[in-house]
Structure formats: structure tokens, C-alpha cells
Amino acid sequence: MRVKPIALAMSALCMPGAFAANTPLTLEQKLANLEARLENAENRAAQAEAQIKVLQQQQTVTAQKAPAIAVESAQPVAADNAPKLTLSGYGDIKFYGDVEFNMDAASSTGSLTSVKTSANKDWAPGSDERWDINGRLLLGFDGYRRMDNGNFAGFSVQPLADLTGKMNLDDTVFFFGTENDWKVKVGRFEAYDMFPLNQDTFVEYSGNTANDLYSDGYGYIYMMKEGRGRSNSGGNFLVSKTLDNWYFEVNTLLEDGSTLFVDQQYHGADLDNQKNVAYVRPVVSWQSGAFSTAVAMESNLVNNAYGYRDSSGKWIDESSRTGYGLTMTWNGQKADPDDGVVVNFNTAYMDATDENDFTSGINGLWRNFELGYIYAHNEIEKFNTASFNADCDSDCWISDPGKYDIHTLHASYLIPDVMKMKNFNIYLGAYASWIEGHPNSGEGNNDSRYGGRLRFKYYF
Length: 460
Known about the structure:
The protein has two helices and 21 strands. The chain has helices at residues 5-14, 27-65; strands at residues 92-106, 130-146, 151-162, 167-178, 182-188, 234-243, 246-255, 265-266, 269-270, 272-273, 277-288, 291-300, 306-309, 315-317, 321-331, 341-352, 355-366, 369-380, 402-415, 424-439, 445-459. Strands 1-2-3-4-5-6-7-11-12-15-16-17-18-19-20-21 form a 16-stranded antiparallel β-barrel. The longest helix is centred in the N-terminal third of the chain and has 39 residues, at 27-65. The two termini are 47 Å apart.
């Protein structure tokens, strides 16, 4: 936009009194005044043009940052009936998900532990050797609102669809608090991980819920997950606090405690649930630089929650369970993402009715390759062999009181950015487990199992 000098000159000449003065001006003075006015007008026009360009640039940047939502229809849509996406305006909404499909091969009939090595929830210890494809698709919907003073509130829900044709649910949680200070969570979710397995692909001991962790007749890999949460029969309430390098957390899990045991069987007895358990799980964590550590315990506070009656009709309480855990981590990838090493050392101990379990493990990750070892020791003081399921005798390893040792090696390798897509990865995983049984009566027994997995992981 340019202002023409001729137009400005005519405008100036037509202004009343434009050249009026008490003292007559010479022609040269009049021309000088006109030239100054023309110069001022041109400067103002240049400033206006610059401001217009700045506004146009700002509008372009805003348009580029704003996400575009394209709505396609198989049928033509009139302008008045165009579909609309309307949000409440109370906070940010996020939609995301991932695809996780596995191709598995596992050896020999039977199982050594209550291990969940398949995303297929119908598979159980004691099945024949497996050659299958399993997995699930997760959809996530998160809402989050943050105030200027740091207060926040939000929610998360994550439905799952698996290859068996069933719909499940991962997390559904509501939370609120103040950022970098305190937080409250309620719903279905997992609390602090006290036994991280690093880049675990196939081992997945104890599954990912607080249910079906203990399979009667098989070894138990205790990993501080009984009160962690994500239960199918109850919910969590968690309070946490962050203070400098310290993190404090108390999680409470209310659920049907007998669902901890597959088929509600424990030491050869069928459990009768009388009332819900209340697990309390405090955690104290400290972190500085690459090093972090945490200690925790979990305990059921409700007596006589579940149990059974013996042959004389006497009630036997089986719900007394208290566990302790320690984990330490060195994460060198914080300072060196390419060559840094991540190492976890974990240990856990469970003091339960007629049984004590100890588990310890170490694992390391370097340049997409992970290797780990887990040792578990089960000491069973009482086992009702007479009422034990006869169908399990040929496959189950623990049917008598005694001591049992379980060793597991697990490894995985990540192939990132498949086809140059940063959201598409492939994992190769393998494990080998062997058990050494030392019952109080009879001969000991030993056996081993192994398996491999190809996992496709796609994020969106």
C-alpha cells in the first residue's frame, strides 16, 4: 500500500488555511513545507504497511499451529448439516493408543510357575505347548486441566480389544492435586513398580493385574504386585507427595482377596471369601541424577477375609499376607541416550500364612539389548495333598510341603523405527526357566521351560 505524492499534494493544497500565515511565505518556503508533509505521510504509510505484514505473519503461524480436523463422508453433506466436534472447554483432551501383537513359541506341556506369558487371558498353566498369535489394541482417552496456580485435575480411560474377541480395560482413573507437590488418584490403575524388568518382552511374571497371581501347584514369583492395583474385583485409592528428591506414596487396594489365587485355590484348599481385603502399600523413593532407589511394603489389614474350614469344621484364616520390597536403578541413558546403561536390582519377600516367598533379580539394558536373571525361593509349610485337584498331579510341581527354587533368564532386543517410522518397533524376546524341587517327603523333581516371542508394537 503506497500513498501517491500527487494525491497528498492536492489534499494539502485544498486544505483551508493550509498556507495561511500571518507573514506571507515565499514560494520556496511553501514548497519546502509541502515536501515535509509529503515525507511524513510516506513514513506513516510505510509504518502501516509493516504492521499489516506482521499481522499477516502472525495469522499464518497461528493457522500452522492449529490442528486440522478433516471430516470425510461417503455421502455429500450440506453446509448446514456438516458434522461438528464440540468440546466442553474445561481442559485438554488427548486421544492415543498402541497396537501390540505377539507371535509366540513355548516349549513342553505344563508350566513351572504362575507365569503369564501370553496376552490371551484364556491360557492357563498346564496347557500344551503353545504356538500362537496373541495381542491387543489399546485406545486411550485422557483429559487434563491445569490452573495458573499449579492445581490440576484429570482422567484417563484405556479400553482394550484382544484377539480372542473380548473387550477388557487397562486403566480408568480420576486424579487431582498440585503439580510437583501432591496428588490423589482413584480408580483402576497400577501404583509404583517395585520390581521393574526393564525392556521385558516375554517373561511378564505375575501378569499386569492384582488378580490370578498365584496358581496352586506351581512356583510363585513374588514381585510386590499383590497390592499394586489394576484389579478386576476392586479399586485403588492413592495419595502421593513429592518433596525435593523424595517421593512418598500410599496406595490402598480394596478387592475380593480370593481372586489373588487362580480358581480360588491355595495349598490344596478351596477358599471361601467372607469379606473384601484392604491392602495398604506405602512406598518411599529417592532419586539423584542417574541413581534412584525405593523401599516399600504391602499388607492386608483385614483379618479372616478369606479361608476355609477343615475336616472338623474349624475356620482357617488364609488372608494374612505381608510383603516387603527394595529396588535400585542406575539410568545412564539420562545423560547418554545412545550408549548409556540402565540397570535394575530388585528384591522382594512375602510372609504369608503357611508360606514364605523370596525373589531377587537383576537386569540391564544397553543399545536396545536387555538381559536379566530372576531367582525365586518358595518355602511351603503346609499343603493339603488329600484334597488337591487330582487332574493337576501330573503337571503341577508343588503338591507337598518343602522348598522350591526357580531360576529364570530373560532377554529382549528392540528393532526401532521399522521402515523409518518412529512409532513402529519390533521386539525379539526369549526366556528360559528351570525349577528345583525339594519336598519334605519323597524325591525331588527338576524340569525346565523356554520360549521365544516376536512382538509388533505400533503407537498412534
